Amino acid sequence: MRILSIFLFLSVLMFACRPAKKVQKIEEAISKVDTTTVVVVAENKPEDKKAEATTTGKDIFEKVIKNKIDFRYFNAKVRVAYEGKEGGDEATAFIRLKKDSAMWLSLRGALGIEGFRVLITRDSVKVMNLLKKNVQYRTISYLQEITGIPFDFFTLQDLVVGNPVFIDTTVIGYKVNASNQLLVLMSGKVFKHLVTLDNTDFKILHSKLDDIDVARNRTCDITFGDYESTAGVLFSTQRKISVAEQSKLDINLYFKQHSFNQPLTFPFNIPRGYKRL
What we know:
The protein is of the alpha+beta class. The chain has helices at 2-7, 21-30, 46-53, 57-65, 141-147, 153-161, and strands at 73-84, 87-98, 102-108, 114-121, 124-129, 134-139, 171-176, 181-187, 191-198, 204-211, 219-230, 233-244, 248-260, 275-276.
């Protein structure tokens, strides 16, 4: 069941990790000003500052969402691997997604044996354990209950297809670094979010969420890599999630196959005799 929780990203957002030095530098500079003001923290040459300063918070926000993936259907085969204090494991996940409607998962172990089948809709979560022959029925609020954050179906589908989550129009700071990466710091009701974009095509490279409530200290750090263009869509086929609190957890997602907008079915027939939990 742990590999299932990891893949759904439900356990990831409950951990904390220390911010990188680059993140601290930006946040320290931004914290000295009113957070309702867009601030340019420039590393560029002096002659670049004038042009950069003409950019508005709205412009920056539009860049953040410029490459947000729009789709009708999504289908993928993903290898999920994690390593933590108690050891590691891996599984293969088959995903079928109909936008804003339903997500179907089939999780298989090393021998290719299907262990779990999951169906998530906008208002429900159903988990079928094929090894123990039982099924769980939960409302969609189950996602929020186990994470303690406003986590819903739409957030989950964005995470799976590689769209940024918990983005907010309140841009409190941005900069372009020496590697021509655009770093944007936004503040929302729950999280402070630092997004790193390629400043050429604006694909997302890195996403770091820090809890606004410092007492809770929840953070999530996701790196996006190995982009491929499929039917005009830029899609990250490899993602690394590094999280830590009292212990460290590393998660890697390798998308071995993926496709968009091919009609799909979502089989979830419960065999007779399965116990309902």
